[in-house]
Amino acid sequence: MTEEFLKELEARLNGTEADEELEALPEAEDGDDSGSPEAGSQDSDSGAVDLSVAGFPEVTKRFEQIPHKFFANPDYYKIALSHEGDIAQRVHTILQKYLNAKDPKDRSVFRPQLISAYWEFIRSAAKGAPGKLAEPKKFLLRYNLLHPNFIDAETRNFFAKLVTENELNQPVYYLDEWFKAVGTGVISASTTDEVNIARSNTQQKLQQLLEKAQGKLDGTRTLLKGKDSQRYDLEHNLQECIHIITEHYPLDNIENVSACYSESQKRAFTDIQEVIKNLLKGDRELATMTKEYYQAEADVHTLREKVADGDVGDVLDLKAVDSEFDTVRQAAKMTIGRQGNHFPVLISEYFHCGPNDVGYRENIISMLARIESIDPEAFCRNYKNRLNRIVPYVILLPTYGDTGICWEPFDKHNRATSRGRIVIPMYPKNLYYAVLCAIADLRWQVAKEKASYYWMEEGLTGNYYQWFAAQKLKGDVKEFFIQDYIIWMTKEAEGIQKLEKEIRGAFWRFMPFSKEVKERLRNRSYVYQELYQRDLNRAMSDGY
């Protein structure tokens, strides 16, 4: 930090509460909340996946016309730190020492202390997310904005105009919303290697069984819809065949007598027999699936009642939030990296993002839609030969990280329709790069889980790994894949050939561009024309 900036921060902080004890800070008041959303408001997504949705909604509103006034509250800093006990006092004390230190060596000592204390403070603040949060605490969790004066007036106005509600109803969560959803049971806590459920915890076991049963119910519902659609197509074919058969032409020179069946009409009889055979077969399968659906529905209903009867109270909610905080903390470290900027507070010295580079919700949704327009199967998973579009949960972390990650490709208890989980830093140097990293990580993990034990031999991961091994490259194969995916999406999608021939062929096959992109590329180069022709050959041989 520059000395001038530190002096400015010191003046800002000392001008309000430098000498006051935090234990005496007032409680958050329920004052005039006109024009503001209910604190900790939650969208209606609730984790449900609508498989009929084909794309993201258009983002027509990015900012509010009139910014809110919460950052102008002179007690913002006090309210943000209030009711968090000794850890809040510790953050306040270390922050003062850090700002007052003149020697860079002293600041290098206080900096790691501040980082450690601040994250423990956030852990404490996160436990209040399932309830009603005061606005300063909500923005503290959402943006890591500890004090409004830590950012300049223009930046404050930018954040004050961001849309606070999830009006687009997409599974994109700010951190305060995420902790609320986990703490209230709307979304299950993320899985970790370190946290295991105790064998005696019956309630948690019931919750896992419920998630698994819900996955079976969703999967069966999807199959039923697919089978019903298939039946509709067969019935339509049957009607066309009957129409062909019942269309007669008069015989020449013989009045009121129709001609014999033509060759095409005779072929229609054969087609009818095949259609009826398939209809009867499909009906038997539909009956079996219907029974499975009703059984799964009954199982879900029974398990929900058992879970509802369990006396879990607020204790399990706090445990879930506490467990999820560990996940978020680890994810934050991964998005930043060892050599990155781990300073936790939103502050002008480190905030260099333009309006289009900040990872706020509407911006992220626009970028996800952009990615899907190039890679239409980016959010798709195959379940029983049916490709389902399932957008993952997106957790927005207010950090200075540069890399997005995938935490889970899907819920292990519901592989059919559960959402994966990706994490994206809000203040990176290149937001589109960070989002692409997360999608590439998701792509790799989904493909790897699908191939299971054969991930080094089959599918996307198998083809890539075999090339990787043949090149005798060293390092993490997934990291190489992520970088190549970014090239695929940013260069190859524009017709700029940067990838190895083998990688381009594997990506074209297993991560195909959209039809529009393929049509455009086929006229750009013989390389893409050849790949396009392979698609046609595979389609003709039914091997695609």
Which SSEs are present, and which pair or pack?
Blueprint: H1 3-14, H2 76-81, H3 86-100, H4 104-126, H5 135-143, H6 153-160, E1 172-174, H7 175-183, H8 202-245, H9 263-309, H10 313-336, H11 361-374, E2 380-383, E3 386-389, E4 393-397, E5 405-408, E6 421-425, H12 431-451, H13 459-470, H14 477-490, H15 501-510, H16 515-522, H17 526-540
Parallel strand pairs: 1-4, 4-6
Antiparallel strand pairs: 2-3, 5-6
Helix pairs in contact: 3-4, 7-10, 8-9, 12-13, 12-14, 13-15, 16-17
Name the shape in a single word.
elongated
Classify the helix fraction into a percent range: 40-55%
| Stretches with pLDDT under 50, minimum 5 residues | 15-46, 194-200, 311-316
End-to-end CA span:
57 Å
DSSP strand tally = 6
Rounded Rg: 29 Å
What share of the residues does DSSP label as strand, in percent?
A: under 5%
Strand order of the largest sheet: 1-4-6-5
* Structural classification: mainly alpha
- Listing every helix as H and every strand as E from the N terminus to the C terminus, the arrangement reads HHHHHHEHHHHHEEEEEHHHHHH
How is the biggest beta sheet arranged?
A: 4 strands, mixed
Please, how many helices?
Answer: 17
User: Mean pLDDT, nearest integer?
Assistant: 84
